[in-house]
Design a protein that fits this description.
alpha+beta, two-stranded antiparallel ribbon, 5 helices, 41% helix, binds zinc ion
């Protein structure tokens, strides 16, 4: 049983909106839609839930490396399959430049 905690390492949420406008169109491309389906077919379960031994169907594809509009990263990945709640929580924090550190029940980072 792991307890998730989040450590802020200097995110800059204010800078996001400009970038977001620029790359939102990437998510609307046929290329992304097929890439997304390929990933979800390969790994249909939420990989972050699986780390905690919870089995949840994945519905989102998250960029492991925040692409910030960089098309090379956007298309090459790596990607992780996640469920909606995980993506909303941990995914957005990572996109804001924050590092996710998880702590075990003993209080030490894992
Ligand atoms: Zn999940």
């Amino acid at each position: 049983m792991l307890i998730e905690s989040y450590v802020a390492t200097g995110g800059r949420p204010d800078a996001r909106s400009e970038e977001a406008r620029a790359y939102r169109r990437l998510y609307k491309t046929a290329r992304w839609k097929s890439l997304r389906i390929t990933k979800l077919t390969e790994q249909p379960l939420c990989e972050w839930c699986l780390e905690q031994e919870i089995v949840t169907p994945a519905s989102e594809v998250h960029h492991v490396v925040p692409h910030k509009g960089d098309e090379a990263i956007f298309w090459s990945g790596p990607f992780v399959s996640t469920c909606k709640p995980c993506h909303a929580r941990r995914g957005q924090l990572e996109d804001h430049g924050q590092t996710v550190v998880r702590f075990g029940a003993d209080g030490w980072p894992v």
